[in-house]
Each structure stands twice: as C-alpha cells, then as structure tokens.
Design a protein that fits this description.
137 residues; globular; alpha/beta
C-alpha cells in the first residue's frame, strides 16, 4: 500500500504519493481547496486510484511547538479524510516545509505563477519525505 502526504491549505492542497515500497515520493499534484466537498471527493478518488493505505496530513505548528487555529483546521480536515476514505490518517509536523519548498523552487528558477501552482505540491513532498524517513528509522 502507498502512502499519501497532504499539505492542506485554504486555496490549494498539495498531494504527494509514495512509490509501492514506501521509500520515495512517486507523484505529486495540487488540488483546489475552496470547495471542501470537491476536495474530499478528489482525495477519495486519488486514494482509490493509487492504492493508498495511509494518509499523512501536515500539521502546521508554531515554531515553539504550540498549535493555533490553522492546526485546528488541519486536524478537522484530517478527521473528515479519515471518515470518508476509511484509511489510517496521521498528522505530521510540517514546520518550515513551505519555506523549504519556496527555497527549492527559487533554486530551480520557479517564479511567479509557476511557483504559486507548484509550492503546495513540493511542500506535500517534503511532508511525505519526512514521514517516510521516520518510518525507515
């Protein structure tokens, strides 16, 4: 079974899916988030199409480890994903993933609209990579 990483956002949600061995990020995409019903349907579709057995949702904590309103929204979203997909859903600390994603894209000359449409998928990849590395230890 594959593992899916989600970087949930108000406008867009980044999605990363592992390979079958759950060692590498195999594919990424970005889903629009403004219509939560449609977003959840898309997550269900991707879960089924890709044989996903675990979903990892990024948890945006403050740098001091506390959680704010955004973390509460991500936890609520994760609960809905768990209900609707029927697979295990885990939360993963996503501190600094968006900053790292912007840096990676800058290093590869992704700017403007091209960056805006890609940064969430890169952040989802970083969330998934962190989780996969944790599992290997």
């Amino acid at each position: 079974m594959k593992i899916m990483g989600l970087d949930y956002g108000d406008a867009r949600t980044g999605v990363a899916i592992s390979d079958l061995l759950c060692t590498l990020v195999g594919s990424t995409t970005v889903l629009p988030s403004r219509n939560e019903e449609k977003l959840l349907a898309d997550v269900v579709r991707l879960t089924k199409e890709n044989g996903v057995g675990t979903i990892v949702v990024g948890l945006p904590r403050n740098m001091d480890g506390t959680e704010g309103p955004r973390a509460e929204a991500c936890r609520a979203f994760a609960e809905k994903v768990k209900e609707i997909t029927g697979v295990d859903v885990e939360m993963w600390d996503e501190r600094r993933t968006t900053v790292e994603a912007h840096q990676i894209l800058s290093d590869h000359n992704y700017h403007g609209k091209k960056r805006k449409n890609t940064v969430d998928a890169v952040a989802a990849s970083l969330i998934l990579e962190g989780y996969l590395a944790y599992r290997r230890r």
